[in-house]
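Side project, low priority. Logging it here so it doesn't get lost.
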Amino acid sequence: MSGETAAAGSASAPSHRRGHGSSLPAWILLDAEGSMESRRNAMTAVGETRNKLSIEMSLWPAPPPLPSKLFVFCPGATLPDHPQVLSVADDLILLRVAVAGRGIMLDDCDYFVYRAVADAKRRSLELIPHPQPDTFRDAVVGILPRAGGDLYTVAALVATMDDEYILRRFDSEAGCWTSMAVSMEAPRREFPVEIPDKCRRLRHHITTTVITLGGEAGTMGWVDLWSGILLYDLLGEDQDRRTMRHIPLPLPMHAINSKAKLRCPDTLRGIAAFMNHGRASLKLAELQISSQRLAHTDIETGWPAFAVDGWSITTWSNTKMAGLYEDWNEEFTVHASEIKISETVGLQLRKSGLLQHKPSQDGEATVELALQNVPVCEPTPSLVVEEDVVYLMARTEFMHPKAWVLAVDMRNNALLGVAEFGTESGLHDDAAYRTGTISKYMSLSTAPGNF
């Protein structure tokens, strides 16, 4: 999940107009893969690529679990790859668009900042300078909106060695990239338990997503969803003090205490930042899955076949942000086998086809599944402080390109809804969607379909 300034709160355009009530959604699940077509609306902004070609972007928001979509169109050009949404914070979207070559190399990409606001005079699409030759992974960059006009900062944290980093930043008023070395303010805290060798990944920081806390100090956080968060104040009073502080995350005790190895955290954990009673706070969701790899390859996907035996979700909150393991408060654990499903939601689930496991090898028959047997990933906490809801990506089979979103009410142990997310064009290392409260900067008059 991408960073969002801590705040209180199918790919066709017509599908975003059905039954959304009379108000805008408090937040959105934005497909991280932009659609390459023109779907103009009241939020459309137009800019130019590095090659002086006109390019337009249009945001179509929808209330979760429905996905929101970003449509990108460059008349007279064929984009070699889908645009990638890198970060969402307040009214800003940072994205990367392949505009040259084959779209495989980062040098072939342009970076844009799309300001999606109700005020047509402020709505904009700005091309920012390419960071070359010092490029960076999509997962390590985020955007910070700043007070006092339409200023913003784009920042990427690149590791050089353990606990030493280069901060690459672009300040909109300066119009250029700068680099500086940053390091840890103090050594990370000792682990409260012994870490086995198979979990040595916990001893290193590998950024998997970025969160934007904002505030007067302009704090951003580079998150390793297994080991912790590196916080840096981009607008701190002492800019000569180039140090970061570390907030540990709850340890994955299921892996530490079992024979299981640590898998990639992107698919098993998700984090959200809030402003709660005037203070920044965090919420973490973790998914645990019990599955077994089968002896054959799936005939539809070409990937190894798996059978899911069950899954559960656990959430934690952190309102203290003092850098202690004890700051995290475990809130809820929900087991899929115990989730309540109403008749209406059950009908949605059956219509989705998620409960029908198609043959994965010749000679097999279609099998009816229970919810706990559905492959899920990417747990994402709601950005509404009062909600205890976690959203999951669900598929009929491991690595199947078509996906749905499940909304799970953690407090009441219930499935709230099922929505088709769409079909991915290919496999990506990053998250399938970004979260943000950008919808609150729109108005009913500019919202597509007039929610």
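Brief comment: Helices lie at 253-256, 343-352.
Revisit when time allows.
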